[in-house]
Design a protein that fits this description.
- By secondary structure, the protein is α/β, with parallel strands linked by helices.
- It has a domain of 213 residues: NAD(P)-binding Rossmann-like Domain (Rossmann fold), CATH 3.40.50.720.
- It has eleven helices and 13 strands.
- A seven-stranded parallel β-sheet has the order 3-2-1-4-5-6-11, with helices on both faces.
- The longest helix is centred in the first third of the chain and has 19 residues.
- The protein starts with a strand and ends with a helix.
- The structure holds UDP-4-deoxy-4-formamido-beta-L-arabinopyranose.
- UDP-4-deoxy-4-formamido-beta-L-arabinopyranose binds next to helix 7 and strand 8.
Length: 340
């Protein structure tokens, strides 16, 4: 009997890619989403890729009764929790909205999942490390005080999970700290679909290339980095999704060594904004319209992962090159344009 994994926020960018990889690895998947931050484009794309329709439950994890019903309607062997708001800038403008949604949804989930000794995989972020000059960061690198309510909700949820596995017998937890997820599924049927003006770099690049945006602003070229622009660890979305499959297997196959484990999910390779733009132009054979602009408040100069622990304990390693990833991002943008 296949194990069943609940993917909360499973209709979103990362959730939909994880759903595909889980299903293709032989797991049954239940997708739950309130569609507050996405439409059904990616869910329909998942169905086309898989050739079947994973059960889809439209619900809000802030509604405790709905969470209880979900767990009584389905046999859930593990949960991957993506359902949260994730726009850094918006979180600064609307902190109560972010704390209420991101914390209450996770607390409801944990309360219900822990009743039967659940397996909970939390979608965390490298943002918890803040600004640091001790690079690459490992899981032992200190968390800096968050620079946004969004980042703070990630730290608080990590602590909630850490404390819950100590208190509730049988509950196990893994936090995956993502670096910068980019790209799209090779089928070009699912990908990043930000609402309105993209906050993140790669969707802004592809929308500029397709003509939806006039010009990319590179926020700051006076940083203390080789080319003056910020450095990040850009992780291909399919590589990232596969890390979740490895983490679920570790939980369900009883391989965990601690009740709560944390893993960096990154490539270990720093790439600057300018290097990414140049690589995008080269691999896709186009010229991008960009200009240098003032620094964006809240940006860290540089951050990239030491992914050794995930490589060793999860048996996972990033495999796709940044060129492959940028080609997939462009193919997805062109697919969206054809649909319009
Ligand atoms: C990357 C670099 C920008 C847009 C955030 C969150 C993280 C995760 C990913 C949700 C920075 C520069 C960007 C643009 C630019 N969020 N940039 N022009 O800020 O590293 O990480 O998004 O899951 O938790 O912290 O990602 O893509 O916004 O920025 O120059 O139009 O690109 O200044 O240096 P970031 P990003």
């Amino acid at each position: 009997m296949a194990k069943q994994v609940l993917v909360s926020g499973g209709a979103g960018f990362i959730g939909s890619h994880v759903t595909v990889e889980l299903a293709q690895a032989g797991y049954d998947v239940v997708v739950a989403d309130n569609f507050s931050n996405c439409d059904k484009t990616c869910y329909e794309g998942v169905c086309r890729i898989l050739g079947k329709r994973p059960p889809l439950v439209e619900m809000d994890f802030c509604d405790k009764a709905a969470v209880e019903k979900l767990f009584s309607d389905y046999q859930i062997d593990a949960v991957i929790h993506f359902a949260a708001f994730k726009a850094v800038g918006e979180s600064v403008a609307e902190p109560v909205k972010y704390y209420k949604n991101n914390l209450l949804s996770f607390l409801n989930l944990l309360e219900v999942a822990s009743v039967k000794g659940g397996n909970v995989l939390f979608s965390s972020s490298a943002t918890v490390y803040g600004e640091t000059d001790q690079l690459p960061v490992t899981e032992q690198s200190p968390r800096q005080s968050a620079t946004s309510p969004y980042g703070n909700t990630k730290q608080i949820c990590e602590d909630i999970l850490r404390d819950s596995v100590k208190a509730y017998l049988g509950l196990k937890g893994i936090a995956l700290r993502y670096f910068n997820p980019i790209g799209a599924h090779p089928s070009a049927l699912i990908g990043e679909l930000p609402r309105g003006v993209p906050n993140n770099l790669v969707p802004f690049i592809t929308q500029t290339a397709i003509g939806k945006r006039a010009c990319l602003s590179i926020f700051g070229n006076d940083y203390p980095t080789p080319d003056g622009t910020c450095q990040r660890d850009y992780i291909d979305i399919v590589d990232l999704a596969r890390a979740h499959v490895c983490a679920v297997a570790r939980m369900l196959d009883g391989k965990m060594e601690q009740a709560y484990e944390i893993y960096n999910v990154g490539t270990g390779r720093p790439v600057s904004v300018l290097e990414l733009v140049t690589a995008f132009e080269k691999v896709n054979g186009l010229k991008l319209n960009y200009k240098f602009a003032p620094r964006r408040p809240g940006d860290v100069t540089a951050i990239w992962a030491d992914p050794t622990l995930a490589n060793e304990k999860l048996g996972w390693k990033a495999t796709r090159t940044v060129e492959q990833t940028l080609a997939s991002a462009w193919a997805w943008e062109k697919h969206l344009a054809e649909k319009q």
